[in-house]
Amino acid sequence: MHIGIDGRLTYYRTGGISTYIRRLIEALEILDTDNRYTVFHSRKAQDSLVTRFQQAKLWTPCHHRLERTGLTVELARFNLDILHSPDFIPPWHGAKRHVITVHDLNFLHYPDLLTAESRRYYNDQIVAAVRQADHILADSEATKADIVEMLGVPAAKITVHMLGVEERFRPLPDESLQTFYREYDLPAQYILFVGTFEPRKNIGGLLAAYRALRNELPDAPPIVLAGRRGWMFDETMARIRQMGLDAHIHWRENIPDDALPALYNGAQVLVTPSFYEGFGLPALEAMACGTVPIVSNRSSLPEVVGDIGLQINPDDPTTLTQALYHALTDSGWLRRMQVAALERARLFTWSHTAAITLSVYRSLI
Length: 365
Description:
alpha/beta; Rossmann fold; 2 domains; seven-stranded parallel β-sheet; 43% helix; 16% strand
């Protein structure tokens, strides 16, 4: 088979879907020696996503209003058997068969928490995308259920492939962490959030819970918010100032991807209080480093963490306050959870993700 994978998004964004694209391609290069692959890059990209597969550069930019038409024209010369669109909006025609990955439907659940541009791109095209796709990959059973219930897609058309965690996410020696603290001016202990600073991530709820926590536990470690600015960032900053939490919140937008293992290792706990997540990769990466997660009891997050850490109601900040208090004051429980987190994280590998993906490719031809 000649299989194409659309990797253009990796030029425009880091983390999330871009991480999925990079790791999936790496795993497929190791796993599949029978089929021919072409991985499509943005024409502006300087780095390569491949070591063994072929690559080709496309002019059509991601999320452009004429993207589906532009890709149809550009891909015609490649004569693909299968085109995999990891950002789940395929061209009108790019191959004999189309596979898309739907990571989440947060834009349908919470359209008011997205920018108008994102709503136009995803909400206006998702119905056509799932109808056109010959098969759909989903990151979790929760996302699969959403696709069936909200978009009327037959369950048989959807395959779940839980994501993996890279080997670099592991416990690190204390001396390397001390160097990391100094380089990025981080406190010796901290509560960690990793993700985009946007309303869907419920940073407002985290701040409310943390302010209440400091009333019960005045010496609670500060919060480190690591990620990139998203929609309504200024409103979040204003809320921090209104709450008088400036001295206890550390924004870090400059931490590179290769420093993330140290960031997770240094945290007392990781907090993911999102209203919705298609998978929740930071929770898995944190567990692989031996860091205990506190996550929402919504969407895919319970599937990822299982019985590790604590689950909270994102609509009720008091549940997060209680969870943080428990994690920070019960050292015996925390140590047991740290060991259990490492064991659970070993269940998630990118090779397994790639094997399921390859089985879908093969089923279509």
